[in-house]
Design brief:
mainly alpha; elongated; 495 residues; 3 domains; single chain; Arc Repressor Mutant, subunit A
């Protein structure tokens, strides 16, 4: 069995670590792609190396207009800065495969000259017939079983295939450990298509070599192809970089790979909804990696310091959006009010259709101070805060469906609310004075907080929940609070 040696050492003094993220510009960047980029970025930053962005655009039919700009914006938004790339250049430019065709042609000609590549003379119909023949014989289809004895001279109009050398392989994966396979998986795969563009299987190996990439981090779906890659490395006379295969990100149920149907979405959509980039990076890093401790909130610097490939798990990581919500909330709670205001200072994050007297930094900061503990992402703000900005209509169902208040008659509720209003009217509406009066009202009425405070809260906010009552009333102010209580009293009198 062939033992394939990888040219890597973690010891200092060896060649500098160079990692890459090489997406195809065929759509948005989801959490799986971001995790691959993040792990490569962390490894490079941890070791003082370089992180490279490269576009693998050889499948021209699938390219989506605007995808390149979107991918770069996604990385920049998450703070995954790259040292070389299509928009900034670098010593190994260009960083777009469609601009590197001459290089692939050169390497392909070397393989042809060495007898390790040949022109594919068969039509697609003939190849399909070979597949059906293998299927009928209940055997796996291998193109090398139909390798032509006298292939034509390759002139670029036919596909170019590797003349493989089937053999068993052993190799070490930095995440999956020692792996091996037999010769039966090695086949003559296409290197250059008939349109002159290389396949991924060929181009990425050439690019990694010419760009001095030392570590390849990629998803589990590629692991079955590694033996063929190793066969090609040998044919080219190249040493392979370190390979690190990260497991799938699984759907919330944990029973399949995460897809768009399961909630996998554009990472920029999360940012637009008010998820913090630091929280997203923290969460995505935790999908399949931990440092062996109970710590869950990691700063960027901590991730760079503690990340290691040998702590990446081999089994799939379940995508749990509830955990993302919790984690983003934890990051929000760490913010100072000035920073929280800066991050939420966008029209879409506030329930204001038209400018009002409350559309100002001072008042919004007071509101943020009250709801910061409950806020999980910024797009929740309109749903959590409408009563701070407008008088909502009386909603009778808030009382009729309340577990405690529905037991009282409208007349009984009216008496309690009138007594509360009279006391609150005497308050200066400072949080301390309001809390004292609310506590006194509990003694005067003989009611529990779940009853009396809920009644006052519903009357003053017309919302099913709110922050602390005294603090909420203080921010609303005396005039608005009493006016809203009066509206609730009128509704109770009308029943």
């Amino acid at each position: 069995m062939v033992l394939f040696h990888l040219f890597f050492s973690y010891t200092k003094g060896m060649k500098p670590i160079r990692t890459r993220f090489a997406p195809s510009p065929t759509g948005f960047l989801h959490v799986g792609g971001i995790r691959t980029a993040l792990f490569a970025w962390l490894l490079a930053r941890q070791n003082g190396g370089q992180f490279v962005l490269r576009f693998e655009d050889t499948d021209r039919k699938r390219e989506v207009e605007g995808a390149r700009d979107h991918l770069m914006l996604s990385l920049h938004t998450l703070g995954l800065d790259y040292d070389e790339g299509p928009d900034i250049g670098g010593p190994y430019a260009p960083y777009v495969q469609s601009e590197r065709l001459a290089s692939y042609q050169k390497w392909a000609e070397q393989l042809v000259a060495a007898g390790r590549a040949y022109a594919d003379p068969y039509s697609s119909e003939e190849v399909q017939a070979f597949r059906e023949q293998a299927q009928h014989a209940k055997q796996p289809f291998l193109y090398r079983n139909h390798r032509p004895d006298n292939p034509p001279v390759w002139d670029g109009t036919q596909p170019l295939r590797l003349r493989s050398d089937p053999k068993p392989y052993q190799w070490h994966d930095a995440v999956m450990g020692d792996l091996s396979t037999g010769p039966e998986v090695i086949d003559d795969f296409i290197l250059i298509k008939s349109d002159g563009y290389p396949t991924y299987n060929f181009a990425h190996i050439i690019d990694d070599q010419e760009m001095a990439i030392t570590h390849i981090i990629r998803g589990q779906e590629f692991i079955a192809s590694v033996p063929n890659y190793l066969n090609l490395y040998e044919a080219l006379g190249l040493a392979a970089p370190v390979m690190a295969t990260v497991p799938h990100i699984l759907a919330p149920a944990g029973n399949k790979k995460l897809s768009k149907r399961d909630g996998s979405k554009d990472v920029l959509d999360y940012v637009r909804e008010g998820f913090m980039p630091d929280a997203l990076v923290n969460f995505i890093a935790s999908l399949g990696w931990n440092d062996g401790s109970e710590q869950e909130i990691f700063s960027r610097d901590e991730l760079i310091q503690k990340f290691s490939l040998d702590r990446v798990q081999r089994s799939g990581a379940r995508f749990d959006e509830q955990r993302l919500l919790w984690m983003n909330g934890a990051w929000i709670r760490q913010l100072g009010l000035d920073e929280l205001y800066r991050l939420t200072d966008k029209p879409e994050f506030w329930p204001l259709d038209t400018p009002t007297e409350y559309d100002n930094r001072g008042y919004k900061t007071q509101v943020l101070a009250l709801i910061q503990e409950r806020l999980k992402y910024f797009a929740e703000l309109p749903g959590l805060t409408p009563y701070f900005f407008t008088d909502l209509p009386v909603d009778e169902t808030l009382i009729s469906t309340h577990k405690q208040l529905k037991k009282f008659s409208p007349a009984e509720l009216k008496i309690m609310l009138e007594q509360s209003r009279a006391s609150l009217e005497q308050s200066d509406f400072s949080p301390t004075n309001l809390q004292n009066r609310l506590n006194d009202l509990l003694e005067q009425t003989g009611q529990k907080p779940a009853i009396l405070f809920s009644l006052i809260r519903i009357a003053s906010t017309q919302a099913p929940a709110s922050p602390g009552l005294a603090d909420t009333l203080a921010v609303l102010g005396k005039e608005r609070s009493l006016r809203r209580i009066d509206a609730q009293l009128a509704a109770l009198a009308a029943v």
